Amino acid sequence: MKYLKFYFFSFIYFYKDKPESWIPEYRSLFLVSITVTSSVSLILLTFHPNLIGIYPFARLALVGLFLAFSATMQRVLISSGKYHAIFKEFEDHPMNTKSNRVACWFIWIVNFIAPIALSVIQKGYIR
Question: What is the pTM of this model?
Answer without folding.
Answer: 0.85
